[in-house]
Design goal:
39% of the residues lie in helices and 16% in strands. The protein is an alpha/beta fold and 273 residues long. The protein has one domain: NADP-dependent oxidoreductase domain (TIM Barrel, Alpha-Beta Barrel). Helix 1 packs parallel to helix 2, helix 1 packs parallel to helix 9 and helix 3 crosses helix 4.
Length: 273
């Protein structure tokens, strides 16, 4: 089943299913990325802090650059104007590409004034080094400020999102401003497989709990970027198109939310403004 796409502010398409590459390093990481691309994935999500830009570059080398959507992220300690520009140039050099499809602020940093960060991101678009920009881990108040500050549209807010952490208020704000939500850790680090409601729904549909969780997020209008190193899981995660959960199924999964946040950043992990 072909992966569906959404359109970003630039008009460029982004596949709604991507491969998260956190902790994909060395030969194993490269093998996982190559396996995903061979199966039909066309969206790789990386970051400066992941330390695998070079591996992403090796993985996409056998494809036309326009075929693979590449996202990277600027770390919070490099959000001053000049550092954002330098971070992007470093990413381009390490990946071996002339442009990034999407560049995000990885985590907010209250010590750096947001206007200079977004000024730099806007300049990167003008220079053609980045096609779209966005944020990650921005909660409502900070996101609202960013919307008012940014000289260019914010394409996405990449946040932890799964049935145990349904950030519906933040999602509503994003949708109101035509910002796509990208869900990382969409399987709650495999915890969805232990949820009886999800298991029951999966059994009824002849699917796996992982597929049900991803399908739930896609029906919420999210992009999903599950991480896996195993080909069978990569293949399984692709089989989330061409079928649907019912409204009743969705509501039952909605009700599983228990605000269970699994990802924290010890230095920049403030979630309330």
């Amino acid at each position: 089943m072909a992966v569906r796409v959404m359109r970003l502010p630039s008009g460029n398409p982004v596949p709604t299913l991507g491969l998260g590459t956190w902790r994909l390093w060395g030969d194993e990481g490269l093998a996982a990325m190559r396996a995903a691309l061979a199966l039909g994935y066309r969206h790789l999500d990386t970051a400066e802090s992941y330390g695998n830009h070079e591996i992403v570059g090796q993985a996409i080398r056998d494809y036309e650059r326009e075929e693979v959507f590449v996202t990277s992220k600027v770390p919070p300690e490099r959000l001053h104007y000049d550092e954002v520009l330098a971070s992007c140039d470093q990413a381009l050099l390490e990946i071996g590409t002339d442009y990034l499809d999407l560049l995000l602020i990885h985590w907010p940093n209250p010590e750096v004034p947001m206007p200079q960060t977004f000024e730099a991101l806007g300049e990167l678009i003008e220079l053609g080094k980045v096609r779209d920009i966005g944020v990650s881990n921005f909660q409502p108040h900070r996101l609202s400020r960013a919307i008012n500050i940014s000289p260019v549209p914010i394409a996405t807010n990449q946040i932890e999102m799964h049935p145990l952490l349904y950030q519906h208020e933040l999602m509503r704000l994003c949708h109101d401003h035509e910002i796509i939500v990208t869900a990382y850790a969409p399987l709650a680090r495999t915890k969805v497989s232990d949820e009886p409601v999800i298991v029951e729904i999966a059994d009824r549909h002849g699917r796996t709990p992982a597929q049900v969780s991803l399908r739930w997020l896609l029906q919420k209008g999210c992009i999903v970027i599950p991480r896996s190193t195993r080909e069978e899981h990569l293949r399984e995660n692709m089989d989330v198109f061409g079928w649907e959960l019912s409204l009743e199924d969705e509501a039952r999964i909605d009700a599983l939310d228990r605000h269970e946040r699994l990802i924290q950043n010890a230095t920049y992990g403030e979630f309330e403004d």
